[in-house]
Amino acid sequence: MGHATHPPETDLIVPLPDGEHWDPHTIHTHYFSFSIPHAQIGAFLYLRYQPAFPLCQGGAAIFRGTDNINVLDIDHLNYEITMPWPDIDANTITTANGLRIEFMEPGREVRISYASTDGQTKLDLIQTAVTPLLARGHVMPGEENYHNAPGRVPGGSEQFMHCTGQLELRGEHYDIDCYAIRDRSWRQVRKETQGGVPVPPVGWTPMYFGPDLIFNQVGFEAPDTNPEWLGVYEVPDGAPTHHFAWLHSNGENKQITRVRRNVLQRQPHTFASLRQEIEAEDEDGRIYRFVGEAIATATLPAWPNVSFHDSVYRWEDEQGRVTHSTYQETWFDRYHRAVKARSRHTATD
After folding, report:
1. Where are the beta strands (DSSP E) in 229-333?
2. What residue ranges define each of the domains in the chain, with the CATH number in brackets?
């Protein structure tokens, strides 16, 4: 059955309404990342277009270690909520706050650069594809409800990249050589209304172990793991716990039919996942198991009406192979209030 892919030109889909009325929550996005495991450093490089206005938001967030409780705890943050529409010159996109994305070869090679206004933080990266542009329908729950708008077909893609380059972080130099995922959305309607979608916390778990095992899923914790969301949300018996997943092995794309994710430990103050395990089954019935632990975490401002957390995870497969990659997690206010109330109750027992 395999998994669908997108053509290279989808990297440059960033249309404006051109006189049409578009839902104000319509977005396009570009996301890039990298990690430096020995220094416990992760990065969130993000551009979110809001074409109905038109404006954009985004920038660079670089974090280190696991004690980043508040947004400004991280090592470097330059994330603007309201910027002009970016400058788009052929295959190069540049934001007002200095994030530059050059698609040197769409679908395969991209250069990302950034320099802070104070000159103390800058980066220059080359990312080269190690998987195709794997197609996804949506990443945030609720987007699927708006996929039938006439003439505005939404889409999204994910792709693992070999990332090399340099980082200067407040005067400290680091060489970068890692495998990092990138993703994007176009013409998605991603609502920001209070309360959001009645769904448990969603986790995104990309990992690259080598050409034979590249995996990702987005979904919530399995009900049989006694997750924190029990009693807050109702999930039908037997319902899938993932709404998007894939596996790439030696040039072949596979569908994932089942995911069981179990969070073992959460950060006391932010409630972000610190340790977890995953069991996944592919379309051929093969089962894969992974265990992961956060070596860096950050609370980030990308989505104001949700709690959004990025991290660098150390993942291990059943053969003992180790890799590092981003793990992202988000949830809505109803869940956050419930978990906060439980944590206060536990603290007073």
Report:
1. 242-249, 252-266, 273-282, 287-300, 307-317, 322-326, 328-331
2. 8-348 (2.40.370.10)
